């Protein structure tokens, strides 16, 4: 990836990263605030709606209680006036009107009007407003009754005009009809109207039969009004003649809609609220008191109904039977309360209060309706959050555009010097050490240009040094034996591996002058340090050793002379050479050795399976002048192996910090003692390499192996 794009990405991260972080944190905080706010609004809404609905229900229950008392008082007054008139002798009166007169539309009372309060829906769905008279009552005689038998009672009840009108002014806002039905079949109704079925007989109406059961006002269950086909209830009580016999019954008819559609009431409840008037009764699917519905909001609809069939009994029910039982217990105890229950598969709020004895009022509102304002508030808050997110989106886009522009502009001030450096590096890589770059800025790139321009000469100097080192390595490698010596009864091999181009380890096989092929000098040395200085000191030591070995003298005297020469050269430099120097005598089958500060050689006897160190006293070469060295010797028998090495073998460490050690070396010698010397050397060097693993070689490694064979046996 180019630097320009990296710079662009970096600038985008620096500019957009904090904005995205703050946007994320801010959005989380806003959403948390929204959730907290909505939760509180929801709680307050539910609490306030509960209180409001309970207050409305209590107020409406009080209104209904007063209306009931008002209707019952009016009914008793109506019955009293009717009984007084029935007790008197009939008097001649003005014209009376029958229901048929209103149906025919001929000879109607002068005050007849089309009443908006008295509505009927025909079978074809057409809405019809009835003609009514608020002055004259209307009479109806069943077909099976001889009109002559009721003439006197018609004359008597015609005197009800004024009582009807007075009572109507008191109850017109709740009642639609005031009725008097006599045992002889005569039916008197106010306001006067028609639309009664031809087969209508008051004596067969269930409210008439109910009135016979008590002298006090009674309330019927719901039934269909024959004239308007509305669902109504009626307050009824019996009428008596002076003799004490039952003369008939009086009733005041109240539409259900007037019970549950009070304007002040309906305006203050949610549109989806269901309204029920119920009565504690036995029945339903289970035993015990249940809530029988005597009025409900759905019964207020204007539609065609059969007046012959009373509405079927209905029971208020809920899937939460335990809560419903609690409601019934509260009503029986006269308590008003609120409960959360299921209604028609929806969670709903039930508000209920007692209207009068055994009757109670229930408002059922779905929670969805109650929480609709909360959802609207939540949607409004979410809309503001979305608007805020849109603004931040546009802001991020603007920042990206500005950042990209700035990155493209400023990246050129960086990429131009970089490209100059790249081109200069290519020329250097191709070997043009005279490559230079021209960067005139006074910033870090200018400094880089100055440093780069100094690199070429330095690389050229290093290249020259590397070539010199290559020559030195080649020369040093030629100073080591090219081939192992061949001596009867001995198998000899050696190898050196340097950690740098040149090293300080040294081994050599020196033939004796005068053609004495039975003698061979073997040297293994280790110069302190690495690199060129160690290589030079190794070459000097080799030259001294080969020169002195060509002269007469034992091996201890040879090392003493070499030590004096080296001490004169390196005594004050702190450098020195450790050397193990041995003389092999093939005829005598013996070995002599001198140890000049070097690690003792190891002799392994394959027959006895024993190890022996070839030690002795002696300081490293070059430390002090006039040093004495201890020369030792021993027999060398067939099956014995001498191993002479440098510390680079046993001091090699692996990645765990563990050293190779002499124990592993001895184990390898024992394992491979039967193999030729060159294979033993290879096995040891390979084992050291495997042990070191991925680590770099830190010290030079040199190993010489001398195996004593049978005289008749040839070297491997």
Mean pLDDT: 85
Question: In the CATH hierarchy, what is the superfamily of the largest domain?
Answer: PPM-type phosphatase domain
* Principal-axis shape: rod-shaped
Count every helix, treating DSSP H or I runs of 4 or more residues as helices: 15
Walkthrough of the structure:
The protein has 716 residues and is of the alpha+beta class. The chain folds into four domains: 3-61 and 372-422, no CATH class; 78-225 and 236-245, no CATH class; 263-370, no CATH class; 480-708, PPM-type phosphatase domain (Phosphatase 2c, domain 1, 4-Layer Sandwich), CATH 3.60.40. Helices cover 42% and strands 24% of the residues. The protein contains 15 helices and 27 strands. Strands 1, 4, 5, 6, 7, 8, 9 and 10 form an eight-stranded mixed sheet that branches. A six-stranded antiparallel sheet has the order 13-12-11-16-15-14. A six-stranded antiparallel sheet has the order 17-18-27-26-23-24, with helices on one face. A hairpin with a 2-residue loop joins strand 17 (486-487) and strand 18 (490-497).
Defining key terms:
24% strand, alpha+beta, 27 strands, 15 helices
Task: Set down the secondary structure blueprint.
Layout: H1 3-87, E1 97-98, H2 99-104, E2 113-121, E3 127-132, E4 138-140, H3 151-157, H4 161-171, E5 177-182, E6 187-190, H5 206-211, E7 218-219, E8 223-224, E9 231-240, E10 246-255, H6 256-260, H7 263-267, E11 274-282, E12 289-296, E13 314-315, H8 321-332, E14 337-343, E15 346-356, E16 359-366, H9 367-370, H10 372-429, H11 444-479, E17 486-487, E18 490-497, E19 505-511, E20 519-527, H12 531-549, H13 555-570, E21 577-585, E22 590-596, E23 601-605, E24 610-614, E25 631-635, E26 640-645, H14 661-672, H15 677-692, E27 701-708
Parallel strand pairs: 1-4
Antiparallel strand pairs: 2-3, 4-6, 5-6, 5-10, 7-9, 8-9, 9-10, 11-12, 11-16, 12-13, 14-15, 15-16, 17-18, 18-27, 19-20, 20-21, 21-22, 22-25, 23-24, 23-26, 26-27
